[in-house]
Structures are given as structure tokens and as C-alpha cells.
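[step 3/7] fold_predict: job queued, chain A
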Amino acid sequence: MSKINFNFPGSERRFIKSKVELRCDSGGDSTVEGYAATWDGTIDPRMPFREKCCRGMFQRSILRRDDAKLLVNHSPDALLARVKNDSLKLAEDSTGLFFTAKLPNTSTGRDVRALVRTGLLDECSFGFVVDPDGGEEWVTDTDDEGNRTRTRLLRSVTLTDCSLVVFPAYSNTSAGIRDEDWKVGGWDDEDEDSDEDERRFPAFARRLFPGGLPAQPELRAILLAQPWRKQRDTDRESRQRRDRLHRALL
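[step 4/7] structure written:
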């Protein structure tokens, strides 16, 4: 059976720290719910621009009933729910994009139930493609130190998936995740035609743009102008948390 590929050209991902909750009814069914995106969420601070999720950015996708999936770690092999069969419900509110999903009675569903119940699975992510018609807007802002910076406003996107993610979103040294794991979709360092700028993109940036270097002119120019440098996670608490999560999945 061929795998579904969510790393198609133009695809992007964003990660947030979100409270994921588990609810169980008297019949034994379990439901997981939380926020896949929030309106105050911003891109990783190591990126060379700011970004804001605007309220209403998912409305077109929700109204069209795009068949978004709920996954674990963006893996199509860890499917929990989907819009098409109504096991995944999506709605925008004053906080962000809220999801609720009935967990299946599968090994993945049972594992997720246990991990959410114990608080080990508590981060979310969403995959999307910016709509070509008014999907994004660029504005110039001034930060607290008086520096001018470009801000990308996400106004309308096609939602491809929501994910419960185990490993910290922006670490280059997450246990069980290697840079090589992200050489998929639009990123191919072995391609003779690949640009040297593309080859030096760090892993955390590739995780935000799994479909490869974006085609939008301004976004592409800003990313290519960034003098990328390898950055290491030296936070002891973060490393210990990753190790604990990794052992829980073994």
C-alpha cells in the first residue's frame, strides 16, 4: 500500500504548546480535544520574519469540508480521525482552531489515550497550504527595540492535517529525529539542481516547510537571505523531557 505524502510542494507546518484533554463517556469511548492553532501563535523566533495566524484563516477550509486528518507526529500511518467520516470536528473560536476527535479502538488510538491521560502528549501542530487568492499579507512592523521587521499575516489557508506531536517542534537534536528524516517532499540535497542555499537550511526550518523552499516571492527571498547557522539545544530540562517521552514510546 502506497503512503500518503503530506510533504507536497507548498505545504507548511506550525507547532504550538497546547493543552490537550481526554474525555471518556460511560460507554467507554474516548474523545481528545484541544487547539491545533491559536491566534497569538507566532513562528519560531529563529526564523527571519514574524508571522501571525489571523482569525478566520481556516474558515474557507472548514466550510468546504476539506478532508483534514488528525495524526500523530504528522505520520499518515498514525491516523486517528478525519473530517470525511465526521470523526474529526473543527471549529474556529476566540482562541484559535479547536478540534475534537473520537479516538479509534486501534493500537494507535489506545496509545494516544494513555499518553494524553498521563500528560506526556501535550503539543499540537497543523499542516496547511496558503490559498493563492488572498491567503497571505506582508506588513512592516517595529519591534520593542525599534528594529523594523517583516510580518507575514496568514489570512486564508487549506488545512491538510492536525497532529498531536511528541517531540519538541523546533529542536535540531530531538531524540529519534534526524536531519535525514526531513529530506522528503521538496527537500532533496542529492539533487544536482538543488541550490546551495537550500542545502544549508537547518532541520527546524525544513520542519516548518516540508514541501520545500516556498514559491511565494517575498517569503522565498526572505528565507534565502537568512545566514542560517546550526543551532543546538542545550536546555537540560528539554533533553530530559525528550528522553522520557522517547522511553514511553518504546
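[step 5/7] annotate
Residues 168-186, 188-194, 229-236 have pLDDT under 50 and may be disordered.
Residues 126 and 133 are 20 Å apart (CA to CA).
exit 0
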